[in-house]
Amino acid sequence: MDFRDDFVEKLKNAKSIVFFTGAGISAESGIPTFRGNEGLWKKFKPEELASFDAFIRNPDLVWEWYTYRRKIVEEAKPNAGHLAIVEMEKYFEDVSVITQNIDNLHNRAGSKNVYELHGNIERNYCIDCKTYYSADELENWSGAPRCKMCEGLIRPDVVWFGEPLPHYVFSTAEAIAKNSDICFVVGTSAIVYPAAYIPHSAKENGSYLVEINVEPTEISHWVDYSLIGKSGVILPDILNQLEKIK
Ligand code: BJW
Ligand code: ZN
Fold first, then answer.
1. What pTM was computed for the model?
2. In the chain, which ranges are continuous DSSP H helix?
3. pLDDT for 60 beyond 90
4. Which of 19, 66, 160, 193 most suits a substitution to test ligand 1, by most atoms within 8 Å of the C-beta?
5. Which CATH class is domain 32-75+120-158?
6. Whose CA is closest to atom 4 on ligand 1?
7. Which band of pLDDT confidence, cut at 50, 70 and 90, is reported for residue 122?
8. Would the pLDDT of 152 be above 90?
9. Domain with CATH 3.40.50.1220 in the chain
């Protein structure tokens, strides 16, 4: 793939780069996205599954949905897009990944600096005493598990609608985005806030914004460079470009 000259120039000089990622980067690993024709929200209602009220109303149903998704995630492997991001650590002083994904694939790929804005499906905690449980510890439960310390309900450590993002993670991620030279926005519809403030903060502070998505999104008209295609193809292409110029 041929890239525009101004982008190649930015790549040459950049010291600090950030990847703001969403479900689309894991699509090529076989993990469904949320929106769009094949998305999870076509089959399942967010208000019945992705809020604390929904969990209290029907903990077994919500738990079953996360068990189904945890299995998909466990069987998935990082794809060429996740792996290209790891390789880019060779070419820049700082590479950070700010992800909305809960699938742990950036960590499993080997990225060093990963900021998970919406939690991680492999962690769980008791809603009463906050004791943490790994997915392995809860494997044999049918229905929503109960805490062995206090009998409270155990929930996945993910951020549901109406819940605050982990404050320290979000504020650190925002500061990193603001200080970046290039911010790549990869595989996200960029409509869920406050996560979607990240590209805005980056651009307002002078970062060069590059979008990688299979289709135009809400933010395509104001990014510096929009690359249409699969992240599992475009990110390795960018890595090839770096090998030539750095
Ligand atoms: C590819 C590809 C390939 C495919 N290559 N690309 C009105 C206005 C503004 C805000 C609100 C509002 N009404 C309500 C709100 C708030 C709400 C919100 O933003 N709602 C919007 C939907 C409107 N936000 C919240 O509730 C947040 N909390 C909050 O606001 O708290 C306030 C508060 C403060 C203080 C105290 C108390 C409260 C929390 C949001 C949590 C979001 N949670 C979820 C579920 C996480 C757990 C789980 O996974 O089960 O997070 S929802 C879901 O959306 C998930 C994702 O992380 C998030 C973003 O989705 P993402 O990643 O962008 O996926 P898709 O599917 O949308 O897009 C995929 C993209 O990939 C597409 O563009 C494809 O084209 C592309 N693609 N294949 C490249 N191969
Ligand atoms: Zn407990």
1. 0.98
2. 5-13, 24-27, 40-43, 46-49, 52-57, 59-75, 80-87, 105-109, 167-178, 197-204, 231-245
3. yes
4. 193
5. alpha beta
6. 24
7. very high
8. yes
9. 1-30+77-118+165-246
